[in-house]
Design a protein that fits this description.
Layout (H helix, E strand, L loop, with lengths): L2 E5 L5 H11 L7 H9 L3 E8 L4 E10 L2 E9 L8 H16 L2 E7 L3 H9 L3 E10 L4 E9 L9
Parallel strand pairs: 4-5
Antiparallel strand pairs: 1-2, 2-3, 3-4, 5-7, 6-7
Length: about 160
């Protein structure tokens, strides 16, 4: 499977919102929420775009000073297990190494494939948020990846 990582633009909003509904049908982000994220100078959205222009996946990163939070990562069901999430996460980690002191995220306690991916990239479980998720109600595992050289604040 061939794809490239590109920054999101408003032209992709309908595709991203549709993919979000496929990946998270119980509680999807709205197109408006993605638009707000796109307009926020402290948020970055990366896309994995297939050769035909389809969106195979995306990742949303929010930054406050020198801390990053992986807000959302999703891959189209037909593109899973083909390295898309790995590539998106790798791009965010590369940014983190250059600009951040830490990258944080929450993940459903039952999402073992995602937890394995994060651990593969060096994230460590540091806590738990009881009943963080709805539909179904579930705990979140808090995970962090600290960077030795990322001490400059992102402006």
């Amino acid at each position: 499977m061939t794809y490239r990582i590109v920054p999101m633009t408003a032209a992709y909003l309908p595709q991203i919102a549709a993919l979000e509904k496929r990946c998270f049908p119980a509680d999807p982000w709205s197109e408006e929420l993605f638009r707000d994220a796109l307009d926020n100078p402290h948020t970055a959205i990366l896309l994995a775009e297939g050769e035909d222009g389809s969106i195979l996946g995306y990742a949303v990163l929010s930054v406050v000073l020198d801390e990053g939070n992986l807000d959302n990562i999703a891959v189209a069901p037909e593109a899973r297990r083909q390295g898309v999430a790995d590539t998106l996460l790798g791009a965010l980690i590369g940014f983190g190494r250059e600009h951040l002191s830490v990258l944080m995220l929450e993940v459903r306690a039952s999402n073992t494939p995602a937890i394995a991916l994060y651990e593969k990239h060096g994230f460590a479980a540091v806590g738990r948020r009881k009943n963080y998720y709805d539909a179904p109600k579930e705990d979140a595992i808090l995970m962090t990846l600290e960077f030795a050289n990322g001490t400059e604040a992102v402006k």
